[in-house]
Amino acid sequence: MSDKQSTKQFTFEAWQKLIDGQLARLESMMQEAASYEKPAVEQATAAIDELAKLMKDSVDYSCRLSAAWRRETLAAMRRSGELFTELTRR
Asked: What is the pTM of this model?
């Protein structure tokens, strides 16, 4: 029985070493993944900030363009009205 007991003990110890080695490699992999995570999050955050700035600038430009269009349309209508008035007075 002693032989059987020592074989079981050897098998358990070998199995335990394999598990410990695998856990150590897994922990190392997780630490490496964590080291890549921070720069990735910073880069994504910077991209989001740039996109938000671009969208705000686009909305601002659109508002300025719309205001200019309204101003020019009103000026053109006034000129048309003045031209029509001049033509009717002749």
From this structure: 0.54
